[in-house]
Write a structure and sequence with these properties.
mainly beta, 3-stranded antiparallel beta sheet, 44% strand, globular
Amino acid sequence: MNAINVIAPYKYLDMWVFDDERVGLLQEPFVSGADTMIDKVVATFPDPDSGFIMLFSANAFPGHQIKLSWRRSDSNGNWYFSEELDMEGWLCPALLKYFEQPPKEIYVQVKAKKAVA
């Protein structure tokens, strides 16, 4: 398993989703508050609906902007809280494609995609 993972979420049918062939995911949606968290962190990005870069890790890394703290498990997924955003979101069982067990913390960095000239 990678120490830092990278995905490129984008909007599909008005929902945030991501693909990661490496772990067998296609149009995996963010739901139950995780989508609202994304809306908030990419609000200033140019054309975020076409996609952005998200790095995440169970370990703090230079440049991370958000720390998600585990709150509880529910419906095969896990609820995490972001103090920076003052929001809570649910992460589905796809989380276990990246971690052997739900981490107590997840550190996140988001970046706008560079414009293609």
